[in-house]
Amino acid sequence: MNKVLHKYIIGIESCIENQIVPDKNIMWFRRCTYLLLLLKIFFIWPELPMFYRHAVNIGLGSLMPYRLIFLPLFYNYYNIYWFFASAIVIIALVLNKGNRLLSVAIFIISINYILLVDQSSNGGDNLHNFLIFMLIFIKEGATKRSVRQMVNNTTILIIQMHFCILYFLNAFGKIIRPFWRDGSYFKNLWHLLYYANPNLTPNWFFNPGLNVFTGWAVILFEFIFPIFIWYKPYKKLLIYIGLFFHLGIALFLSLPDFGFTMIIVYILFWDLPTSIYKKKKFKLLKLAQKKNI
Amino acid sequence: MKLMKRFIAIFTIFIFLGYILVAIYPYTPSFYQKSYTGKATRKIKKILAYGALFDRENAIISKSVSYRFYQNGKWQQSQLLLEPLFNDYVTTGNFAALKHCRLDVRLVVRINQINKHKGIIKMLKSKEYTQFTDHLFYRHNQNIKPDSLEVSYYVKDYETNSMNLSLIFKCKP
Q1: Which of B2, B12, B45 best probes binding to A when mutated, by most A CB atoms within 10 angstroms?
Q2: Count of domains in chain A?
Q3: Which of A125, A133, A173, B72 is the right S-S partner for B55, CB 3.0 to 4.6 Å?
């Protein structure tokens, strides 16, 4: 037992020491996550009075930092607060490379948003909030084998595992439901009011054969993704399929916030190409080394 | 440094164990789900949005809600609650309208469920009903409390293209 546990610990140790997601990915991941929050803050603004009033009515105000805004003291100032919140997110979007204080502030703003739209939120808002929370522990510019690097790796590994397990759970949850296996889920889904976008849904989507195929394709993708995403030859293909899949959810099922949150996570799986400048620098370095020899 | 590495590794293992606990929660026996740990796990599961999505049969039932107010001595014309908001999103891309539509769906589904399980009297006394009417008057009636209100909740059967009445009530708010 002890040996097995030790083996696991060693395995994870090597993972958090060696699994390196480049700063470039982290930077784009942070930017996209904060940009999505900013867009949500802006887009919700026209209905802010209604959402704020509802949040106050259901008694969200308390002395917790993320609930302060719902206290009577702020009843007349929520627009100003929202303005400052968006300004902070913009600052974080432009400048933040892992400043903990700023990341915590963004997390509080994200919780404000979640509480505000709580009754109308879907899983996407919570997943997005989870990403913002995890970004508190990620800092760009970590040196190799430093503690900061290990914390970065651990956090990224947790996010990756989170989404892999989520895919697996979804596949399992779907395969045990008969209405997913016989295609009736999609048959009903394309008729679903307030979700299926009638302007984008073509007639051939209602084909029964296609509904069975789509149902099984989704289940298969969700089973395959968490296993094969760790193998380089399949990575790109799976990410392309995933992009297509989540863009479909965002557009056809009117769940843009959920679809884009899932797409953002792919940045952590994607091998971003090294810039030409870096490639040249690397070649020059190798040449110099050879000459020295 | 080595000690730190070991500490982070053990911490990560604990996190993964926690993940497994949350992941298997829906398949655990009911006594666990009712226990304090079970309730805490459910809360974490909700916060993390962890679990199967799009797997409830209820989620693929089309609803339609209409309402009308009695004010200024007469019943006003019946209006659809959800369609205009969703149409606004579909035609203009207004994300706030989509979120508003989702809020209205959630509020009305909750009162319908209370009515189904506990009856109309308990539903009319529930805080969910107060939340629904408060929102309805504020956002759909220019913050004016009407003398009376009628709400009809339909379930749409797309195969026969018919609307089956699920809930209807008239009341003085």
Answers
A1: B12
A2: 2
A3: A173
